[in-house]
């Protein structure tokens, strides 16, 4: 049996831009949670904080979503913050910037 017609994880990651901004519909294509689950995770600090472009337009940095999907975004339950790191760097050396 083949996986023809199904998008593999590597193929899906190729669709995720390196830079730019993503709306929630685009984010949820890469993160397997519901819309309400995503917002709960954002509120709890498990997921990156959004950028508000206007009162009705919210987006996330593509790089932050890539870190989350690749597993290089970690949640610190004690402080309630998320931390990104490059696997080539020391763990926790690059703190996740909220809302920037």
Attribute tags:
single chain, 100 residues, alpha+beta, three-stranded antiparallel β-sheet, disordered N terminus, disordered C terminus
The amount of beta strand, in percent, is 15-25%
Total count of strands: 6
Low-confidence stretches: 1-8, 89-100
Helical element count? 4
- Give me the Rg, rounded: 14 Å
- Give the strand order of the largest sheet, numbering strands 1, 2, ... along the chain: 1-3-2
Explain what you see.
The strands form 2 sheets. A 3-stranded antiparallel β-sheet has the order 1-3-2. Strands 4-5-6 form a 3-stranded antiparallel β-sheet. The protein is globular, with a radius of gyration of 14 Å. The protein contains 4 helices and 6 strands. It starts with 8 loop residues before the first helix and ends in a 5-residue tail after the last strand. It has helices at 9-15, 24-27, 35-44, 62-70, and strands at residues 21-22, 51-54, 57-61, 73-76, 81-84, 94-95. Residues 1-8 and 89-100 have low confidence and may be disordered. The chain is α+β, with helices and mostly antiparallel strands.
Ordered list of secondary-structure elements with their pairings:
Blueprint: H1 9-15, E1 21-22, H2 24-27, H3 35-44, E2 51-54, E3 57-61, H4 62-70, E4 73-76, E5 81-84, E6 94-95
Antiparallel strand pairs: 1-3, 2-3, 4-5, 5-6
Nutshell version of this structure?
By secondary structure, the chain is an alpha+beta fold. The protein has four helices and six strands.
